Amino acid sequence: MELEQEEQPQSGYFDEIADIVAAREHPIIMVEASALRWMGLREIPEVSSGIPSERLWSDLVRLITGVQDVELLVRDKDIGSIVADLIATGHYELDDHNPADPLRYGHTRHVPRLRRRCDLGLYTHFTLWSETMYHISCDVPLVEVPDVTAANEFVVEDEFDPGGPDAPSLSIRSRQAAGVELLYPVVAQTAGCARPVYIPSIPVLIDALLDQERHRLAHPEIYPAGMGSFPLYHISNFIRYLYLEKGYRRDRILSKLALRNRPDMEIRMNRYKRKPVLKLSDIRTRHPSPSLDVPSKVESNGSTRVKVGVAIPRQEVNDLERRLHSLGA
Fold first, then answer.
1. Distance of CA 207 to CAs 174, 234, 253, 316, Å?
2. Which listed residue, 1, 56, 131, 226, has the most CB atoms within 10 A of its CB?
3. How confident is the model at residue 314 (pLDDT cuts 50, 70, 90)?
């Protein structure tokens, strides 16, 4: 079935789902990419094809093609009724196709994914994770977030803000003070009737990811070796963006994890190798000649020669210029 396309995206694309979930006296709890953005991880909401962008909604509409998901955690006992209620509205239908399924979930028919029939907002697809499949309870400590979608990455839990002499602050206060956009112009819920949206606390989610990975290893018939692991990818990003391998941050997160997961997390932090930060002064020291200048001339063979003596095919230069122009650079 073809999706109807709206010329202008509208706020309130999450209202109907929020009402149906709340009618079951169920909290609205996000997991995966949309939640991780509120935990400081540089995650783009799931995109099956297209170009990730940090820009505002107008640029996202222009640049991103393909489907995107918002993923919710739902009680085992409620997931069937919530799916049925959404389909009954006539605005949603089950979508069994997800190009990332084999990599991410294994037997994903246990993880219902619904497609919105009329694309009014940033998300066209919604995935509902049961507690059993995500290895996390809906009754864990939760943290309220400003909206379903963060325009950039922030750490809502100040306790885990990595800010310090060796790391930038990712708190909402410090990021907004630096001029970083908090929300997209198109927001998930209509003003005046918005319901609270939550994410699990950071240690709780890390526990869930480590439990998921343990489950994957115990069931190779579902998760074949060599297909990659999204739980481990997220764990690596937690270490990277929150600087968890360092000093007091390391001790703090380990003390908050379940005892069963502390050894695994410690091993992963020990293995993590942070790449050195490359500064402009380092480039100038290594390349005292004007190696970053614009190309100096066009050769007769169609290549552009830069001053460091590296020939770049003219077609590649043209493609790069077009991409930069489309990004507004």
1. 28, 12, 11, 45
2. 131
3. low
Give 269-291 pLDDT, tens digit per residue: 999 998 876 555 555 555 554 44
Give the DSSP H or E segment for 144.
strand 142-145
**Sign of the CA dihedral with 168 first, then 29, 150, and 35 last:** positive
How many residues make up the chain in this entry?
A: 329
Chain position carrying tokens 């409620």 = 78
At position 100, the amino acid (one-letter code) is A
Is 73's pLDDT higher than 80?
A: yes
Phi, psi (deg, nearest 5) at residue 206: -60, -40
CA neighbor of 231 nearest in space, from 214, 209, 211, 215: 209
Q: What CA–CA distance (Å, rounded) separates 309 from 304? A: 10
The reported pTM is 0.74
Report strand pairing: 28-31 vs 125-130.
unpaired
Residue 295 CA from chain centroid, whole number: 37
Phi, psi of 68 (to 5 degrees): -135, 150
In this predicted structure, what is the pLDDT of residue 199?
Answer: 97
Instruction: Please state whether beta strands 125-130 and 142-145 pair in parallel, antiparallel, or not at all (unpaired).
Output: unpaired
Most confident range, picked from 3-12, 58-67, 297-306? 3-12
Taking the C-alpha atoms of residue 72 and residue 239, their distance in angstroms, rounded to an integer, is: 24
Q: Which two tokens stand for residue 156?
A: 């809502």
**Other CB atoms within 10 Å distance of the CB of residue 103:** 14
Which pLDDT does position 58 carry in this prediction?
36
Beta pairing, strands 118-119 & 4-5: parallel
d(CA 187, CA 147): 7
Alpha helix segments (H runs only) across the chain = 15-23, 32-37, 57-63, 79-88, 101-104, 131-134, 172-177, 202-218, 230-242, 247-256, 262-271, 280-286, 314-326
Whether 11 contacts 187, CB under 8 Å? yes
Residue 235 has pLDDT above 60, yes or no: yes
How far CA 105 is from CA of 164, 231, 265, in Å, comes to 36, 10, 21
Q: Which residues, listed in sequence order, are joined to residue 94 by a DSSP beta bridge?
A: 114
